[in-house]
């Protein structure tokens, strides 16, 4: 199938405003005058960020959602995305159909559309690069660097589930999990849930935020380093995926939950005066948020305490493809 | 080297406005209220769009420039870009240094900067995906679809040189070329020259335009199809790279020049009343432009005439990686 036919049959139905039916050299974005654009670009590759044999619709969703997660953490509402797909000979019509179905359902879910992109042939490895574009009021992007002493650290959802899902898929975790729990953890790894609906609350109330993609410990370090503060987190306050307790001692540990990848939750620093507003906005968005620690002056890293002692980790950040 | 060190040592010096030092989840663009943004995303892969062993600085420039070429064809001035690099174990410090030097010199040349991106590990194949962002006055993007009967077709520069450069690198073309001509053709393949300085002339005067990346014949078909017109081109008027004549009959042909890839010239449809203005603007930008044909009503493809007869081609479009 040549590229024109590929676009015509599979990708054109995904094209939205500014995409010109994917028939042009480029797409366009016409932002209203009171908005900034937030742009982010993450690439995922077979055997590194997803496993050979992962369902194509989950590969598509993962590629898209890791980018939407970045937008949410900056307080931006997603607008659209560009896609570059390096496809192998194994990407037959059924694969492409499922891949595009995965994108289509997410376009509806997150109210976005495809603006442009590229497809190339790759002999041996599927690679997906997505650039996502979001908007927010001018000058209001939430940086990693704005946390101040006295802010409270809030985390959305739960962590550890995705790392446990990967451990299960790689046969490293061996508990006799209930089938439902197993499926839910694997889904957590394959299909992150970007906190798009929390973006407005982050934009209005957070002094700093980032998304947890490489493990809570290492990502909290990044927030602390960018802000020039010490992030103090109480491990007992960190909400873990409920299915994890069955795995602890069976190939998976609390340390792995705190340093595993692909959680895609948001860690936000909320000034004391904004706490009420943030919690109310999160509740309206139906997203659980939990206070897990606080910001102290001085330092440039995170400290995770358990029973009053700082936890030590062999690696604080998850490196994709290292397991 | 972990990703933080990689960013710190190699990519941070490339970061410009909106990139936040590449220390955040995303970058931002704050366009002025009278501008639209044009966005394009092309991916290139080792062994498909460039050859293993190509100098890393030319790989970087090619990845960037194929995108800048799209912007120029739409009449947009480049603003910045996002980069995703899948690097192999062979991408050592010297490789990365040269790759980033290639980007740095082009940033200066085209007055752009890096806004954001991603680096991932790839076991076996360097892949570079770039999203370029340009700006132009609101509503003024030049589409492929605007050509009207009576318009004159103009081509920038010359074509065929890049295809000949690839044929030389692949030992398919065997003429006893002068060393200078050989080097110039190979450079043409490795380092396209996007017609950035022609963008304003295109924006002001063209009814339709696109960049020639997959061969003049096939790309003229695309303009014709999008506009619902017949593009009639006289082969004798098409300016060819001057070094080509030495190769004709020695493994390279006029047909290959008209259907080879990677020319990155601009084909523009200019209404008769705009011809003077377009030629003057091109001359001010110091870019040669040549009238190569005209637009006729009806049809949806290009016709390339030689001695009054339509030329036949085994393939009208170049497929990257097919040679």
From TrEMBL, chains A, B:
Lineage, highest ranks first? Bacteria, Pseudomonadati, Pseudomonadota, Alphaproteobacteria, Hyphomicrobiales
* PANTHER family listed in its UniProt record: THIAMINE-MONOPHOSPHATE KINASE
Q: Where is the PurM-like C-terminal domain?
A: 148-305
> Could you say which enzyme class this protein belongs to?
transferase
Q: Which organism is it from?
A: Afifella marina DSM 2698
Pathway of this protein? Cofactor biosynthesis; thiamine diphosphate biosynthesis; thiamine diphosphate from thiamine phosphate: step 1/1
- EC nos: 2.7.4.16
The residues that hold Mg(2+) 3 are: 25, 70, 211
| Domain spans labelled PurM-like N-terminal | 24-135
Q: Which GO terms describe its molecular function?
A: ATP binding; magnesium ion binding; thiamine-phosphate kinase activity
What positions does the entry give for substrate binding?
A: 49, 262, 318
Q: What is this protein called?
A: Thiamine-monophosphate kinase
Name the protein family: Belongs to the thiamine-monophosphate kinase family.
Reproduce the miscellaneous comment text: Reaction mechanism of ThiL seems to utilize a direct, inline transfer of the gamma-phosphate of ATP to TMP rather than a phosphorylated enzyme intermediate.
Q: Where does Mg(2+) 4 bind?
A: 25, 40, 70
Recorded hits in NCBIfam families, A to Z, give: thiL
Annotated residues for binding of Mg(2+) 5: 214
């Amino acid at each position: 199938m040549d590229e024109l036919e590929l676009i015509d049959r599979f990708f054109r139905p995904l094209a939205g405003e500014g995409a010109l039916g994917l028939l042009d050299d480029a797409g366009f974005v016409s932002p209203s005058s009171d908005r900034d654009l937030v742009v982010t670009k993450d690439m995922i590759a077979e055997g590194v960020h997803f496993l050979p044999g992962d369902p194509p619709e989950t590969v598509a969703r993962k590629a898209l959602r890791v980018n939407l997660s970045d937008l949410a953490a900056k307080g931006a509402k997603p607008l659209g995305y560009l896609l570059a797909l390096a496809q192998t000979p194994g990407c037959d019509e059924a694969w492409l159909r499922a891949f595009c179905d995965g994108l289509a359902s997410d376009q509806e879910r997150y109210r976005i559309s495809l603006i442009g992109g590229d497809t190339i042939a790759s002999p041996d490895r599927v690679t997906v690069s997505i650039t996502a574009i979001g908007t927010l009021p001018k000058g209001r992007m939430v940086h990693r660097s704005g946390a101040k002493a006295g802010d409270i650290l809030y985390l959305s959802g739960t962590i550890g589930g995705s790392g446990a899902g990967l451990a299960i898929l790689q046969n490293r975790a061996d508990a006799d999990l209930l089938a439902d729990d197993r499926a839910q953890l694997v889904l957590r790894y394959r299909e992150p849930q970007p906190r798009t609906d929390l973006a407005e609350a982050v934009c209005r109330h957070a002094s700093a935020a980032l998304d947890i993609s490489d493990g809570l410990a290492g990502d909290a370090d990044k927030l602390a380093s960018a802000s020039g503060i010490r992030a103090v987190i109480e491990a007992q306050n960190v909400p873990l995926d409920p299915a994890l307790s069955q795995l602890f001692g069976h190939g998976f540990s609390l340390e792995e939950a705190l340093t595993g990848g692909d959680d895609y939750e948001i860690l936000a620093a909320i000034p004391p005066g904004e706490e009420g507003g943030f919690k109310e906005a999160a509740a309206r968005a139906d997203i659980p948020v939990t206070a897990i620690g606080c910001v102290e002056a001085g330092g440039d890293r995170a400290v995770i305490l358990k029973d009053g002692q700082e936890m030590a980790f062999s690696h604080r950040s998850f490196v994709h493809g290292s397991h």
